[in-house]
Design brief:
The complex is a heterodimer of chains A (308) and B (270). With 308 residues, chain A is α/β, with parallel strands linked by helices. Chain A has eleven helices and 13 strands. The chains are: A alpha/beta (308), B mainly alpha (270).
Amino acid sequence: MSNSLISVRGLTKKFDDFTAVNGVSFEVAKGESFGLLGPNGAGKSTIMRILAATSTRTAGTVEILDKDPEKFGPLVRAHLGVVPQQDNLDGELTVSENLFIYGRYFGLSKRFINAKIEELLVFAQLEEKRNVKVEALSGGMKRRLTIARGLVSEPDILLLDEPTTGLDPQARHILWDRLFRLKEQGVTLVLTTHFMDEAEQLCDRIVVMDKGAIMAEGSPAGLIKEYSSKEVLEVRFGSDRNVEVAPVLQKMCERMETLPDRILMYADDGEKLLEQITAQKLHPTTSLVRRSSLEDVFLRLTGRTLIE
Amino acid sequence: MNTGINVPQIARFGAFYVAAARIRSMAKWKVIITAVDVGNPLFYLIAVGIGIGVLVESNSGTSGTNGIKYIAFIAPALLANAAITGVMDECVFPVIEGFKWRKLFYAQNATPITGRQIAIGVYLAALSRTVFSVTIYYLFLLAFNVVDFGISVLTILAAIMAGGSFGAVMMYFAAKIEKEDYFFNVMQRLVIMPMFLFSGTFFPLSSMPIYLQPIGWISPLWHGTELGREAAFDYGISTLMIAIHLVFLVAVAAIGLTLSIRQFERRLAK
């Protein structure tokens, strides 16, 4: 048995003439928290469905715990917990009933599932809601329940497709906290996201994807170091003036991106750069110095922002 | 992997796990389901027994119905129709819900459960609902003294076979639906209603013009009704016709289920 729980080589998926995934390769080790970062339509969800042993591939090899998910679908799925992009809970059943029937799909004994439900209700902070119909839960609660449901079988790998999309900031932070606990417990997490802060918070290693292909791979910090500067200065001169001042600013930093609403200037010392700009009598209407993020890495790699 | 997970066991019993979950969902509607299953026979038997039956018999006696009281003549048809209606509910709505509205099938398929097991599980749950509905109906037939207890119990089986046959085909169509806009209206008005009217329900199929009889021949309701009549009273159909009715219902159910399984597997793997 290899060290990798997941091994993907040259994975390609075509839908008629459209290539959704184009020759993607990566490995995921046991206990690792691995992320696929990219904008909508980058092919992340397609890869997830192939990893989840519910979709076929056009070319390449995929092994999950040394088994081809296409040939051993039920056996591979027995090792997985899956949290889909859209919640697909049974709204007519209660919180605990949803967990119960899901456990039964894994053939688990009623005694095991009932004990597990208690544990998962605590984990998902849904103890008070155990007998409430799922329809009545908030979006954040449904999401936590979907994650808890994915854990009912104590999976070796938890696959999460866009786990916090559509949630408000508070609900996102609660969810991150829950996922971080899983990571600490050594659960292997594979997640897709188009939120760079989510990838930074939760992932040990990520691949940056665009248009079905991998653009870069590494740890969030490593990627930032490799593809961006230490800090970023964001300046706004107003929509009309941004273009006008851009050539002047270009000469003052190692790299610059002109976006429709603002200019991003990459430098190791953002404050110092801002001082130089004001010394030139160029007064931006707003300015912000921040550290580089994966958003900047993505911009560098693709020339586009993650959320367009 | 969790040591409690036994994949070969799931391969054997997965469809039953799905059926059990469906029945649990159905149980949430137990008051409505029971009210419909009690109200339906009650109203029909009163309306037909006291109303239409009296009218028919006062005009032509029992000459048009092989010498059988009118209410008794149509009872097996009502039973088969109740089975078909019940199966329709459980083979169409949960399938559209599973693929489209709540996407429950995708959740089930993320476990070791396969598309084939989901299709069979939904079908088994629909049949269970039918057994419940038809048994209540049969008890009303006994209470209204329409049939005598005994071999007439087999009308239950005939009705379930009619429901199972029709339901399997409906499940396939439900699994094909991407946009359900017109489906229910078209089904209700152009399939269910004509089938109810032209399947020898209210009068023998043979009394209709020959060009209308094929509607009955391809209708599970007619085949189920004829078998039910043979079980409920001595209707006098030949052994060959009994065999034809049985083979038709089983064959249509098998074809419908096979197509459904294939469609479930295809759609889940898309």
